[in-house]
What does this fold into?
Amino acid sequence: MTRTTYGTPAQGLWGATLGFFFGFAAVALFGPTAARFQQVMGLSPVAVGFLVAMPALSGSLLRIPFAAWVETTGGRKPFLVLLALSLIGMAGLTAVSLWVYPQHLTAGWYPALLGLGMLCGCGIATFSVGVGQVSYWHPQRQQGRALAVYAGVGNVAPGIFTFVLPFALMWWGLATSYVAWFAMLLAGTVLYALRGRNSWYFQLREQGASETEARREAASLGQELFPARNLLESLRISARCPKTWALVCIYFTTFGGFIALTAWLPTYYMQSFGLSPVLAGGLAGLFSLLCSLIRVGGGVLADKLREGGENTAVLALLIMLSGTLVMINASRYELALPGEVLMAFGMGVTNAAVFKMVPQAVPNAVGGASGWVGGLGAFGGFAIPPVLAFAVRDLGEAGYAIGFIVFVFLTLLSLTMVWVLKYSGDPAPAAPAPAPGKPRQAMTSH
It folds into this structure.
Protein backbone atom coordinates (compact mmCIF):
# COMPACT_ATOMS: atom_id res chain seq x y z
CA MET A 1 0.00 0.00 0.00
CA THR A 2 1.41 3.38 -1.02
CA ARG A 3 1.33 6.07 1.64
CA THR A 4 2.12 9.76 1.22
CA THR A 5 4.07 11.81 3.75
CA TYR A 6 4.35 15.57 3.87
CA GLY A 7 6.73 18.16 5.24
CA THR A 8 10.40 18.59 6.00
CA PRO A 9 12.29 19.08 9.27
CA ALA A 10 12.57 22.81 8.52
CA GLN A 11 8.81 23.06 8.01
CA GLY A 12 8.20 21.07 11.18
CA LEU A 13 10.46 23.44 13.13
CA TRP A 14 8.92 26.67 11.89
CA GLY A 15 5.37 25.41 12.19
CA ALA A 16 5.90 24.53 15.87
CA THR A 17 7.80 27.77 16.49
CA LEU A 18 4.95 29.88 15.09
CA GLY A 19 2.40 28.11 17.25
CA PHE A 20 4.52 28.42 20.39
CA PHE A 21 5.26 32.09 19.72
CA PHE A 22 1.58 33.03 19.71
CA GLY A 23 0.66 30.68 22.56
CA PHE A 24 3.46 31.82 24.87
CA ALA A 25 2.46 35.48 24.46
CA ALA A 26 -0.25 34.81 27.08
CA VAL A 27 2.44 35.26 29.76
CA ALA A 28 1.97 39.01 29.21
CA LEU A 29 -1.83 38.81 29.10
CA PHE A 30 -2.83 40.87 32.17
CA GLY A 31 0.43 42.65 33.03
CA PRO A 32 0.00 45.87 31.01
CA THR A 33 -3.80 45.93 31.49
CA ALA A 34 -3.98 45.04 35.21
CA ALA A 35 -4.02 48.70 36.29
CA ARG A 36 -7.16 49.35 34.26
CA PHE A 37 -8.98 46.36 35.71
CA GLN A 38 -7.79 47.31 39.20
CA GLN A 39 -9.11 50.86 38.85
CA VAL A 40 -12.51 49.92 37.44
CA MET A 41 -13.15 46.90 39.70
CA GLY A 42 -11.55 48.25 42.88
CA LEU A 43 -9.21 45.26 43.21
CA SER A 44 -6.73 44.86 46.05
CA PRO A 45 -3.02 44.33 45.30
CA VAL A 46 -3.40 40.65 46.20
CA ALA A 47 -6.30 40.27 43.78
CA VAL A 48 -4.18 41.87 41.06
CA GLY A 49 -1.34 39.48 41.91
CA PHE A 50 -3.55 36.45 41.38
CA LEU A 51 -5.00 37.95 38.20
CA VAL A 52 -1.65 38.50 36.47
CA ALA A 53 -0.46 35.06 37.61
CA MET A 54 -3.47 33.04 36.50
CA PRO A 55 -2.32 32.25 32.92
CA ALA A 56 0.85 30.69 34.35
CA LEU A 57 -1.21 28.20 36.41
CA SER A 58 -2.62 26.30 33.44
CA GLY A 59 0.47 27.06 31.37
CA SER A 60 2.70 25.22 33.82
CA LEU A 61 0.59 22.32 35.07
CA LEU A 62 -0.61 21.26 31.61
CA ARG A 63 2.93 20.87 30.28
CA ILE A 64 3.44 17.38 31.70
CA PRO A 65 0.24 15.62 30.52
CA PHE A 66 0.32 17.25 27.09
CA ALA A 67 3.98 16.32 26.64
CA ALA A 68 2.98 12.73 27.36
CA TRP A 69 0.17 12.97 24.78
CA VAL A 70 2.76 13.76 22.10
CA GLU A 71 4.20 10.27 22.61
CA THR A 72 1.02 8.66 21.33
CA THR A 73 -0.33 11.01 18.63
CA GLY A 74 2.49 13.40 17.75
CA GLY A 75 2.37 17.10 18.54
CA ARG A 76 -0.23 18.38 16.09
CA LYS A 77 -3.40 17.38 17.95
CA PRO A 78 -2.21 18.47 21.45
CA PHE A 79 -0.95 21.74 19.96
CA LEU A 80 -4.30 22.51 18.34
CA VAL A 81 -6.24 21.63 21.49
CA LEU A 82 -4.14 23.99 23.62
CA LEU A 83 -4.37 26.82 21.09
CA ALA A 84 -8.14 26.29 20.79
CA LEU A 85 -8.55 26.51 24.58
CA SER A 86 -6.48 29.69 24.57
CA LEU A 87 -8.68 31.09 21.79
CA ILE A 88 -11.81 30.40 23.86
CA GLY A 89 -10.33 32.31 26.78
CA MET A 90 -9.25 35.18 24.55
CA ALA A 91 -12.69 35.33 22.94
CA GLY A 92 -14.24 35.63 26.40
CA LEU A 93 -11.90 38.45 27.42
CA THR A 94 -12.58 40.22 24.13
CA ALA A 95 -16.32 40.00 24.78
CA VAL A 96 -15.85 41.40 28.30
CA SER A 97 -13.77 44.29 26.99
CA LEU A 98 -16.33 45.09 24.26
CA TRP A 99 -19.61 44.81 26.14
CA VAL A 100 -18.89 44.92 29.87
CA TYR A 101 -15.86 47.17 30.38
CA PRO A 102 -15.89 49.73 31.93
CA GLN A 103 -19.42 50.64 33.02
CA HIS A 104 -20.59 47.16 34.05
CA LEU A 105 -17.26 45.58 35.06
CA THR A 106 -17.72 45.19 38.82
CA ALA A 107 -15.85 43.06 41.36
CA GLY A 108 -18.39 40.31 40.69
CA TRP A 109 -16.67 39.68 37.35
CA TYR A 110 -13.35 38.86 39.04
CA PRO A 111 -13.86 35.03 39.11
CA ALA A 112 -14.77 35.11 35.42
CA LEU A 113 -11.57 37.00 34.59
CA LEU A 114 -9.55 34.43 36.54
CA GLY A 115 -11.17 31.58 34.62
CA LEU A 116 -10.67 33.27 31.25
CA GLY A 117 -7.05 34.00 32.13
CA MET A 118 -6.54 30.33 32.99
CA LEU A 119 -7.94 29.32 29.59
CA CYS A 120 -5.68 31.81 27.81
CA GLY A 121 -2.72 30.35 29.69
CA CYS A 122 -3.22 27.00 27.99
CA GLY A 123 -1.21 28.45 25.11
CA ILE A 124 1.84 28.66 27.39
CA ALA A 125 1.80 24.87 27.73
CA THR A 126 2.45 24.49 24.01
CA PHE A 127 6.16 24.67 24.78
CA SER A 128 6.50 21.07 25.95
CA VAL A 129 4.38 19.86 23.02
CA GLY A 130 6.50 21.71 20.48
CA VAL A 131 9.74 20.42 22.00
CA GLY A 132 8.62 16.86 21.37
CA GLN A 133 7.36 17.68 17.90
CA VAL A 134 10.60 19.37 16.87
CA SER A 135 12.72 16.59 18.39
CA TYR A 136 11.07 13.86 16.33
CA TRP A 137 11.61 15.82 13.13
CA HIS A 138 15.37 16.28 13.57
CA PRO A 139 18.28 13.85 13.90
CA GLN A 140 20.15 13.98 17.19
CA ARG A 141 23.12 15.90 15.77
CA GLN A 142 20.78 18.76 14.75
CA GLN A 143 18.51 18.89 17.79
CA GLY A 144 20.54 21.40 19.79
CA ARG A 145 20.33 24.02 17.06
CA ALA A 146 16.70 23.25 16.23
CA LEU A 147 15.53 23.46 19.84
CA ALA A 148 17.57 26.63 20.38
CA VAL A 149 15.74 28.27 17.45
CA TYR A 150 12.39 26.99 18.69
CA ALA A 151 12.83 28.13 22.29
CA GLY A 152 14.70 31.33 21.41
CA VAL A 153 12.12 32.67 18.96
CA GLY A 154 9.12 31.55 21.00
CA ASN A 155 10.39 32.94 24.29
CA VAL A 156 10.63 36.51 22.98
CA ALA A 157 6.85 36.65 22.48
CA PRO A 158 5.99 37.90 26.01
CA GLY A 159 8.61 40.64 25.73
CA ILE A 160 7.30 41.82 22.37
CA PHE A 161 3.68 41.82 23.54
CA THR A 162 4.61 43.60 26.79
CA PHE A 163 6.31 46.27 24.67
CA VAL A 164 3.49 46.64 22.15
CA LEU A 165 0.34 46.34 24.27
CA PRO A 166 0.74 49.67 26.16
CA PHE A 167 0.98 51.51 22.83
CA ALA A 168 -2.11 49.67 21.62
CA LEU A 169 -3.95 50.64 24.80
CA MET A 170 -2.98 54.28 24.30
CA TRP A 171 -3.95 54.41 20.63
CA TRP A 172 -6.90 52.05 20.47
CA GLY A 173 -8.21 51.55 23.99
CA LEU A 174 -8.74 48.30 25.87
CA ALA A 175 -11.49 46.79 23.74
CA THR A 176 -9.81 47.24 20.36
CA SER A 177 -6.49 46.02 21.80
CA TYR A 178 -8.07 42.76 22.92
CA VAL A 179 -9.82 42.40 19.57
CA ALA A 180 -6.44 42.77 17.86
CA TRP A 181 -4.85 40.23 20.24
CA PHE A 182 -7.66 37.75 19.58
CA ALA A 183 -7.20 38.24 15.83
CA MET A 184 -3.45 37.61 16.13
CA LEU A 185 -3.99 34.47 18.21
CA LEU A 186 -6.54 33.24 15.69
CA ALA A 187 -4.09 33.93 12.85
CA GLY A 188 -1.36 32.06 14.74
CA THR A 189 -3.65 29.08 15.28
CA VAL A 190 -4.56 29.01 11.59
CA LEU A 191 -0.90 29.29 10.61
CA TYR A 192 -0.04 26.37 12.84
CA ALA A 193 -2.96 24.33 11.48
CA LEU A 194 -1.61 24.94 7.96
CA ARG A 195 2.13 24.59 8.66
CA GLY A 196 2.41 22.43 11.76
CA ARG A 197 2.98 18.78 10.91
CA ASN A 198 3.80 15.62 12.79
CA SER A 199 6.98 13.80 11.88
CA TRP A 200 6.84 11.06 9.26
CA TYR A 201 6.40 8.24 11.78
CA PHE A 202 3.20 9.72 13.20
CA GLN A 203 1.87 10.53 9.73
CA LEU A 204 2.33 6.90 8.69
CA ARG A 205 0.68 5.62 11.85
CA GLU A 206 -2.32 7.87 11.19
CA GLN A 207 -2.61 6.30 7.73
CA GLY A 208 -2.84 2.82 9.20
CA ALA A 209 0.78 1.65 9.00
CA SER A 210 1.85 -0.88 11.61
CA GLU A 211 4.42 0.07 14.26
CA THR A 212 7.22 -1.79 12.49
CA GLU A 213 6.27 -0.52 9.04
CA ALA A 214 5.97 3.09 10.20
CA ARG A 215 9.38 2.97 11.86
CA ARG A 216 11.01 1.43 8.81
CA GLU A 217 9.52 3.88 6.31
CA ALA A 218 10.16 6.91 8.52
CA ALA A 219 13.76 5.81 9.09
CA SER A 220 14.25 5.54 5.33
CA LEU A 221 13.15 9.18 5.05
CA GLY A 222 15.70 10.27 7.64
CA GLN A 223 13.86 10.14 10.98
CA GLU A 224 16.12 8.89 13.80
CA LEU A 225 14.07 9.32 16.98
CA PHE A 226 10.92 7.39 17.76
CA PRO A 227 8.62 7.35 20.82
CA ALA A 228 9.93 4.89 23.39
CA ARG A 229 6.57 4.89 25.19
CA ASN A 230 8.26 4.77 28.58
CA LEU A 231 7.61 8.34 29.69
CA LEU A 232 5.39 7.32 32.62
CA GLU A 233 8.07 5.00 33.93
CA SER A 234 10.64 7.75 33.43
CA LEU A 235 8.43 10.14 35.42
CA ARG A 236 8.18 7.64 38.27
CA ILE A 237 11.93 6.96 38.38
CA SER A 238 12.88 10.64 38.24
CA ALA A 239 10.31 11.53 40.92
CA ARG A 240 12.12 9.20 43.33
CA CYS A 241 15.43 10.98 42.73
CA PRO A 242 16.13 13.93 45.10
CA LYS A 243 18.23 15.62 42.42
CA THR A 244 15.11 16.05 40.29
CA TRP A 245 13.52 18.16 43.01
CA ALA A 246 16.69 20.19 43.45
CA LEU A 247 16.46 21.07 39.76
CA VAL A 248 12.74 21.84 40.10
CA CYS A 249 13.59 24.28 42.91
CA ILE A 250 16.19 26.09 40.79
CA TYR A 251 13.93 26.30 37.74
CA PHE A 252 11.02 27.45 39.92
CA THR A 253 13.19 30.39 40.96
CA THR A 254 14.55 31.35 37.55
CA PHE A 255 12.07 30.33 34.85
CA GLY A 256 9.08 30.72 37.18
CA GLY A 257 10.59 34.04 38.23
CA PHE A 258 10.91 35.07 34.58
CA ILE A 259 7.21 34.41 33.95
CA ALA A 260 6.22 36.07 37.24
CA LEU A 261 8.18 39.28 36.66
CA THR A 262 7.08 39.57 33.04
CA ALA A 263 3.52 39.75 34.40
CA TRP A 264 4.25 41.78 37.57
CA LEU A 265 6.75 44.43 36.44
CA PRO A 266 4.22 46.65 34.57
CA THR A 267 2.18 46.92 37.78
CA TYR A 268 5.34 47.45 39.83
CA TYR A 269 6.59 50.34 37.71
CA MET A 270 3.20 52.04 37.39
CA GLN A 271 2.17 51.75 41.05
CA SER A 272 5.56 52.16 42.73
CA PHE A 273 7.02 54.94 40.58
CA GLY A 274 3.95 56.39 38.84
CA LEU A 275 5.27 55.64 35.35
CA SER A 276 3.05 55.74 32.29
CA PRO A 277 1.75 52.42 30.95
CA VAL A 278 3.96 52.82 27.87
CA LEU A 279 7.19 53.33 29.84
CA ALA A 280 6.29 50.64 32.38
CA GLY A 281 5.53 48.19 29.58
CA GLY A 282 8.77 49.07 27.83
CA LEU A 283 10.84 48.37 30.95
CA ALA A 284 9.00 45.10 31.57
CA GLY A 285 9.45 44.12 27.93
CA LEU A 286 13.17 44.85 28.19
CA PHE A 287 13.42 42.41 31.09
CA SER A 288 11.53 39.69 29.22
CA LEU A 289 13.53 40.06 26.01
CA LEU A 290 16.89 40.11 27.80
CA CYS A 291 16.04 37.06 29.85
CA SER A 292 14.95 35.13 26.75
CA LEU A 293 17.85 36.08 24.50
CA ILE A 294 20.60 35.60 27.10
CA ARG A 295 19.45 32.02 27.56
CA VAL A 296 21.18 31.06 24.31
CA GLY A 297 24.48 32.49 25.52
CA GLY A 298 24.01 30.72 28.83
CA GLY A 299 23.83 27.39 27.05
CA VAL A 300 27.09 28.10 25.23
CA LEU A 301 28.79 29.09 28.50
CA ALA A 302 27.56 25.95 30.25
CA ASP A 303 29.02 23.84 27.44
CA LYS A 304 32.44 25.46 27.70
CA LEU A 305 33.02 25.63 31.47
CA ARG A 306 34.33 22.67 33.45
CA GLU A 307 31.38 21.24 35.39
CA GLY A 308 29.58 23.78 33.27
CA GLY A 309 26.02 23.41 34.49
CA GLU A 310 26.77 23.80 38.18
CA ASN A 311 29.47 26.47 37.83
CA THR A 312 27.40 28.49 35.36
CA ALA A 313 24.37 28.31 37.66
CA VAL A 314 26.39 29.49 40.68
CA LEU A 315 27.75 32.48 38.75
CA ALA A 316 24.37 33.39 37.30
CA LEU A 317 22.50 33.02 40.60
CA LEU A 318 24.99 35.32 42.34
CA ILE A 319 24.38 37.91 39.59
CA MET A 320 20.63 37.44 40.07
CA LEU A 321 21.06 37.92 43.84
CA SER A 322 22.92 41.19 43.32
CA GLY A 323 20.15 42.41 41.02
CA THR A 324 17.53 41.49 43.59
CA LEU A 325 19.31 43.54 46.28
CA VAL A 326 19.36 46.51 43.89
CA MET A 327 15.60 46.16 43.31
CA ILE A 328 14.90 46.04 47.06
CA ASN A 329 16.79 49.29 47.65
CA ALA A 330 15.73 51.19 44.52
CA SER A 331 14.00 54.47 45.34
CA ARG A 332 13.70 55.60 41.70
CA TYR A 333 13.01 53.66 38.58
CA GLU A 334 16.39 54.68 37.15
CA LEU A 335 17.97 52.79 40.07
CA ALA A 336 15.67 49.79 39.59
CA LEU A 337 16.64 49.41 35.92
CA PRO A 338 20.16 48.00 36.54
CA GLY A 339 18.67 45.60 39.08
CA GLU A 340 16.15 44.40 36.49
CA VAL A 341 18.94 43.85 33.95
CA LEU A 342 21.04 41.86 36.43
CA MET A 343 18.04 39.72 37.38
CA ALA A 344 17.25 39.08 33.71
CA PHE A 345 20.85 38.05 33.04
CA GLY A 346 20.98 35.74 36.05
CA MET A 347 17.62 34.10 35.34
CA GLY A 348 18.27 33.59 31.63
CA VAL A 349 21.70 32.01 32.09
CA THR A 350 20.50 29.78 34.94
CA ASN A 351 17.56 28.58 32.83
CA ALA A 352 20.05 27.31 30.26
CA ALA A 353 22.32 25.80 32.92
CA VAL A 354 19.49 23.81 34.48
CA PHE A 355 19.00 21.69 31.38
CA LYS A 356 22.73 21.21 31.08
CA MET A 357 22.51 19.60 34.54
CA VAL A 358 19.46 17.40 33.90
CA PRO A 359 21.25 14.57 32.03
CA GLN A 360 24.12 14.68 34.53
CA ALA A 361 21.87 14.55 37.59
CA VAL A 362 19.26 12.06 36.33
CA PRO A 363 20.94 10.28 33.39
CA ASN A 364 18.63 7.26 33.44
CA ALA A 365 15.35 9.16 33.43
CA VAL A 366 16.06 12.34 31.48
CA GLY A 367 12.65 12.61 29.83
CA GLY A 368 10.77 12.30 33.11
CA ALA A 369 13.09 14.68 34.93
CA SER A 370 12.70 17.24 32.14
CA GLY A 371 8.93 16.95 32.50
CA TRP A 372 8.95 17.59 36.25
CA VAL A 373 11.48 20.41 35.99
CA GLY A 374 9.74 22.13 33.09
CA GLY A 375 6.19 21.77 34.40
CA LEU A 376 6.62 22.40 38.12
CA GLY A 377 9.41 24.92 37.62
CA ALA A 378 7.13 27.06 35.48
CA PHE A 379 4.58 26.94 38.31
CA GLY A 380 6.65 29.68 39.94
CA GLY A 381 5.07 32.03 37.42
CA PHE A 382 1.77 31.48 39.22
CA ALA A 383 3.01 31.29 42.81
CA ILE A 384 5.35 34.29 42.98
CA PRO A 385 3.15 37.28 41.93
CA PRO A 386 0.64 36.79 44.79
CA VAL A 387 3.57 36.72 47.25
CA LEU A 388 4.80 40.05 45.85
CA ALA A 389 1.24 41.36 46.19
CA PHE A 390 0.98 40.28 49.84
CA ALA A 391 3.96 42.53 50.60
CA VAL A 392 2.11 45.48 49.07
CA ARG A 393 -1.04 44.68 51.03
CA ASP A 394 0.83 44.55 54.33
CA LEU A 395 3.37 47.35 53.79
CA GLY A 396 1.69 49.71 51.38
CA GLU A 397 3.69 51.33 48.57
CA ALA A 398 7.00 50.31 50.20
CA GLY A 399 5.96 46.70 49.69
CA TYR A 400 6.59 46.93 45.96
CA ALA A 401 10.33 47.10 46.63
CA ILE A 402 10.47 45.02 49.81
CA GLY A 403 8.50 42.23 48.14
CA PHE A 404 11.57 41.37 46.06
CA ILE A 405 13.04 39.84 49.20
CA VAL A 406 11.22 36.66 48.17
CA PHE A 407 13.81 36.34 45.40
CA VAL A 408 16.62 36.64 47.96
CA PHE A 409 15.31 33.56 49.78
CA LEU A 410 14.59 31.68 46.55
CA THR A 411 18.04 32.46 45.15
CA LEU A 412 19.81 31.37 48.34
CA LEU A 413 17.78 28.17 48.34
CA SER A 414 18.68 27.60 44.68
CA LEU A 415 22.38 28.11 45.40
CA THR A 416 22.05 25.46 48.11
CA MET A 417 20.43 23.11 45.61
CA VAL A 418 23.29 23.64 43.15
CA TRP A 419 25.71 22.68 45.94
CA VAL A 420 23.64 19.53 46.54
CA LEU A 421 23.77 18.66 42.84
CA LYS A 422 27.52 19.27 42.63
CA TYR A 423 28.61 17.32 45.69
CA SER A 424 25.91 14.72 46.37
CA GLY A 425 26.17 11.05 45.48
CA ASP A 426 24.83 8.77 42.80
CA PRO A 427 22.20 9.74 40.21
CA ALA A 428 18.81 8.15 39.82
CA PRO A 429 18.50 4.36 39.53
CA ALA A 430 18.58 2.90 36.08
CA ALA A 431 15.40 2.82 34.07
CA PRO A 432 14.34 -0.41 32.39
CA ALA A 433 15.92 -0.77 28.98
CA PRO A 434 13.58 -0.16 26.05
CA ALA A 435 12.48 -3.06 23.95
CA PRO A 436 14.64 -3.97 20.94
CA GLY A 437 14.06 -1.57 18.07
CA LYS A 438 12.54 1.02 20.41
CA PRO A 439 15.26 3.52 21.31
CA ARG A 440 14.97 5.82 24.24
CA GLN A 441 13.48 9.23 23.72
CA ALA A 442 16.07 11.95 23.32
CA MET A 443 16.48 14.57 26.04
CA THR A 444 14.26 17.59 25.62
CA SER A 445 14.30 20.80 27.59
CA HIS A 446 11.30 22.61 28.94
Summary: The domain at 9-423 is CATH 1.20.1250.20 (Growth Hormone; Chain: A;). The two ends are 38 Å apart (CA to CA). The chain is about 75% helix and 0% strand. Residues 430-446 have pLDDT under 50 and may be disordered.
